[in-house]
Amino acid sequence: MYLQTKVLELIRLQLFPILAERDQLQRSPRLKAETIARIDYARELLLSRLENPPSLLELAQMVGVSDRTLRRGFKELFGTTVLNYLIEKRMQHAQELLREGDLSVAEVANLVGYSHLSQFAGVFRRKFGITPSQCFLGKKSVS
After folding, report:
1. pTM of this prediction?
2. Which domains does the chain have, with CATH numbers?
3. Which pLDDT tens digit goes with each residue over 18-40?
């Protein structure tokens, strides 16, 4: 019975990273459950305010953690920085809007928080390998 328990424990230890990756929320033994919940709430706030996100300090204050804890915890839980996460989600949303074809490239850029079209186009091209206009016209991305 003891050996059976140890085998099951080893299986659990092997499967845990795979399941955590699938859920995109890797639970860290260094972070308290309350801190994880606050960082996850920060992620939700970012997603709800793609057009005009709070600064890192504002976001940390809104969720009740220090900016350092937010930066470290975000990197640990989501595998990326807060800024890179925000850019990634903005670009995904922009691509969806452009593919729908109901809005112009400039309108999409404004909706995802870019006031300068050239900056939006540069980030979009680096991410997808095509310009926003090409995406709007239905070209498939190369990445």
Report:
1. 0.72
2. 2-79 (1.10.10), 86-136 (1.10.10.60)
3. 665 555 444 555 778 888 888 99
